[in-house]
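Readers outside the structure-tokenisation community will struggle with the description of the input data as it stands. I therefore recommend that a typical entry be quoted early in the introduction. An entry of this sort, consisting of the sequence and the corresponding backbone structure tokens, reads as follows:
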Amino acid sequence: MKFKALGAFAGLALLAACSNTPTASTGNTGGTGTEASTGGTEQDLANVGDRVFYDLAKSNLSSDADATLGKQASWLAKYPSVNVLVAGNADERGTETYNLALGNSRADAARDYLVAQGVAASRVSTISYGKDKPIAPGHDEASWQQNRNAITSVVGFNPQGN
């Protein structure tokens, strides 16, 4: 008899545990928590497309980059409280000074596109890492192509949405 009561109690406890809904987390420091339930997270941005790529020694945007940045601009319009950082990067070839300047030009080109699409300039900051933060570790053309980029990431939320 005691086993039946204990089994019934355990079954009820299991059902109660299954009915609890876990709370979402933004995964972003500085977030208000409301973005997780409505979107606007780093993962949301990655799903839209968070990076664009450049040709060797260039900072002009390709048609693929235009398409990706257009999606980012639409995403940012949907989440007006999100602020982003555009990080410009270069491959390992060239001097540190040259690559920092090139990364800066790439970040600026991406930012300028977003602003031209109606994103408030105050919501988009830029930085250049030059060749210091490669995403592909190799020392060949395939790796260098991946490292010539501008990556957009969520850096904070502005509850006022401006």
